Amino acid sequence: MPRFSIIVPSHGVAGRLSQALDSVLGQSFGDLELIPVHDAPDAPAAAVAAAHAERDSRVTPAVSPPSAGLSGARNAGLRVATGAYVLFLDGDDLLLPGALAALDARLRETAGVDVLYAEHERAPWWEGEPTNPAAALLAKAPQDAFAPERFPELTGVQLPAWGAAYRRAFLAEHELVFPDSHFTDLGWGGLTTIAARRIATLRRVVVRHRLRRQGSRLNLPGAHQHALLDQVELVLTRAAGAGLSAERTRALFGQLFTQVLRTASRPERLPSGHRAFFRRAGRLYRAHRPAGYRAPGGSLGVQHRLLAAGAYTAFRALRGANQAAARAAEGLPRPHTLRTRLRYARDLRRPLDPGLAVFCAYWGRGYACNPAAIHAKARELAPHIRPVFLVEADQAAAMPKDVDFAVIGSRRSWEVLARATYLVNNANFAEGVVKRRGSVHLQTQHGTPLKTMGVDQSTYPVVAAQSGSYTKLLSRVDRWDFNLSSNRHSTQMWERAFPGSYEHLEYGYPRNDVYYTATAEDVARIRRELGVPDGATAVLYAPTHRDHHTGFEAGLDLEAFCAAAGEDVVVLLRAHYFYDRGRAGAAGPAARIIDVTGHRCAEDVCLAADALVTDYSSIMFDYANLDRPIVVYADDWEVYQETRGVYFDLTTEPPGPVVRTPEELARVFCDGSYAGPEAGALRAAFRERFCQFDDGHAAERVVRRVLLGEPPEAIAPVIPLAERIPAPAAATLVRS
Known about the structure:
By secondary structure, the chain is an alpha/beta fold. Helix 14 crosses helix 27 and helix 21 (558-565) packs parallel to helix 25.
């Protein structure tokens, strides 16, 4: 029997689940079983749980349907738990280092208590000081193990379920499970408090509770708020038959109704049924008020008395004065000139145009990436939509002749931003853009994340210093209604990096559709346009940006590489778009180095290339769709990890050979191993993981779901990877 069973529900937190599980498995005290509970075999969290189970025999995943909620997930874990003590951990929280060792030591000191309460800290997502809300209460408790009567103020009602260790035999003896419905922690805390005979405390923080940026789901408005009274009634009814002392009953009653009054005093949480909630709460109050109970002083005491009297109108009048004023000034438009600002404010008062859609890519760098692919498909499938592309002034001349556009900052750009029903971007619109009720914002992203993104960058000083305000970033995230993903890994990382209430669309990247629709003739045409000689092996070299560099550094002697790799090799050099200075077409010695950095379409460049050499650029994830050789040139991997932060170890899960020196890079091309069977096997595994949703129909799925409003169940499913046929390469290479 393991000492501890740690149960980790994971619904809706797949992005941070691996961190939670790692925080358990990395404990210095190893006598444990870890039970991650996920929704279904194909749920995002299932793959995370399965991967940990493969690596560590102490991991035993369990399944609970989403309809069972948090209580069902925890109860599913309880049914399979075998440990002497049970702990719960939310899937986006952390068990702090040394926590299990400290719990074990305290449990040995206190000789088999039913419940051991411990401290926890509440930590903001990315900035601010953590707090320790349980410390003040636990500091007053006796130092040894004690009966609850000695300190009736300590009840589980005011502490989270994951803030304690529970003796499993005690739970089984009293048949304790989490009550169904919402506010299950309150019901569980009350029931365990009533049943416990010996308890103890640990004056040490064991769990870091990472506050969701969106706040607790229990604070959202809706009919689920009435479930709070169900849990209160359950606990009070059980307490009435348990023969508790008067002191314990009064403490439990007071703490339960403190929770009730927090909801009753916020009418916005109950957009309908607030009066019914108040009246039912009053009936429970009068029916279960213990003899000799004295209401607290001050404003809270007044609320107690009004609730007991059923004085709803007076209660609303008391609380109405404390309603927070609407912060209408937040997010006010900020165009550059006063005249444009006033016009934008005027246009915001006009009705939305149901047929207007605004597109933008890379902060206005032109007609490119996912927005361009969606724009093209929308003209085919949704001709009633009038699209307008936003571009910087210096990109206007390069726009396709048949694409309507507006220059960013112009009067027309602010007008269409104010009136458009649909707004599509692969980065973010300007901070001053107001999200209007009824408008639909689609964030398409522009790559699969290997490097840390969003708020995950905050712990890396070099990149954090360049990222600006995370508060402003997250205010822009709040405008998103949909967020596009090309693989399950991306879905989980976006959830971590950009916490928000948007809906994930696991449809693939529209820009990658061409990798399955292009023909051999298209490939030949693009190669001619780029100047690739007939019969040459075109190697695309695409290094990523280094946050610790001040300008573009190739990182590789391309002339020497060409000389060493073979006479038929030419290099297509594509620097990160930060360094695009319109250099397309520039060629190196003997036309063997072709600079394609300024070429508008990265997808064309990939189609022209017979192989890719990159370091840590996200282009590898897109290029993998072509099932062509990829070589990772990781000459500074450790430095990049340290300064930028990464989501997985590329050197252990690469799409092809990993080389560290120019000599190794030249060698894999000279001996052909860059395209050999071993490279093919690595590429196949990489494609299985990262090419999940790209099948040539991503743009169609997006247009139908977002612009045409078709329901999710009507959208065509993704074609299995094995059935997809990528665009042919110009050279004959070994394919996976």
